[in-house]
Amino acid sequence: MKRRESMFVLLIALALLASAASQQPDTPSNAAKGAKSAVGEITLPNVPLDMPPGPNLAAFQQHCLLCHSARYVTMQPRFSQTVWEKEVKKMVDAYGAPITPDEQKQIVEYLVAIKGPPAESK
């Protein structure tokens, strides 16, 4: 969650800097009129959350996409269930992700379904 909040703060700061850079210097006529420009609108990019379908997708979206982008997750290599369990547990233990043990199992099930070992060839 901290990464997303940091990104929003950065975007707002950049917008304010761009606004300050584009403002006309206060000339006597502008200062007399009290004219000041301000940021009227900021349009953030629309990033779709296209995730592959799988069991417990809703639990994954609710908890994991708070901090991770969909692209970040889908570009991960295929891991075994044991590795995914350790990764999800690390998010809880090391980073404080508010995920219950039952939700952790659901998220692991989803990750194994989309990024687990490849299906055996016949």
Helical content band: 55-70%
Order of helices and strands: HHHHHH
What do we call the CATH homologous superfamily of the largest domain? Answer: Cytochrome c-like domain
| Total DSSP E strands | 0
Rg estimate, integer Å: 22 Å
Number of helices: 6
Shape: elongated
Sheet-strand content, in percent, reads: under 5%
Helix-and-strand structural type:
mainly alpha
- For this structure, the CATH topology of the largest domain is Cytochrome Bc1 Complex, Chain D, domain 2
- How many domains, as an integer? 2
Overall pLDDT: 80
Low-confidence stretches: none
Write down the CATH class of the largest domain. Mainly Alpha
**CA distance, first residue to last residue:** 42 Å
CATH architecture of the largest domain: Orthogonal Bundle
Query: Strand count, sense and closure of the main sheet?
Result: none
Brief summary of the model shown:
With 122 residues, the chain is mainly alpha-helical. 56% of the residues lie in helices and 0% in strands.
